[in-house]
């Protein structure tokens, strides 16, 4: 297959990284110049926009746009990575939290807010990815940064074995859904 310059838009499946997708596309197209317009977590599925060759210079314009996510947040469990793949490091009783308190808190996150990104992220600290530093057992301190949540809708609150909240989020680039969950 040959593609000189352009974009590839695909639905990334769960279980692979955005970098894995880039590597496979490089091999398939026989080119080294492939980049993506924003990292999706390995467990996340969703639209991944990739630029090939000269189109990679336009990815910066795509990354600044509004993003939309459909996510499930589990309350009462803290993990090492702020997601379901991390090791559970603490649990808490969620029966004392009302549905209205959950809705009120999430509503308070709409607008311009300061958010501390998750430590297990692709953010670079002194040239190294934060997730690599965490895996090496090093302390990671990522400063809060301003992001904007345009819309945060609670779709469903499930109280079964755990307290799970299904949400729809529209947000600015640089927003971490795992940080909202934390």
Task: Give an overview of the whole structure.
The structure is a single chain. By secondary structure, the chain is α+β, with helices and mostly antiparallel strands. It has two domains: 6-63, no CATH class; 67-181, Pseudouridine synthase (2-Layer Sandwich). Helices cover 21% and strands 36% of the residues. It is built from five helices and eleven strands, in the order E-H-E-E-H-E-E-E-H-E-E-E-H-E-E-H. The chain has helices at residues 18-29, 59-63, 99-108, 130-135, 177-181; strands at 6-12, 34-36, 46-52, 67-75, 77-79, 88-91, 111-115, 124-125, 128-129, 145-159, 163-171. The strands form four sheets. It has a four-stranded antiparallel β-sheet with strand order 4-11-10-7. A hairpin with a 3-residue loop joins strand 10 (145-159) and strand 11 (163-171). It starts with 5 loop residues before the first strand and ends with a helix. The mean pLDDT is 90.
Summarize the structure.
By secondary structure, the protein is α+β, with helices and mostly antiparallel strands. It is built from five helices and eleven strands; from the N terminus they run βαββαβββαβββαββα. The chain folds into two domains: 6-63, no CATH class; 67-181, Pseudouridine synthase (2-Layer Sandwich), CATH 3.30.2350.
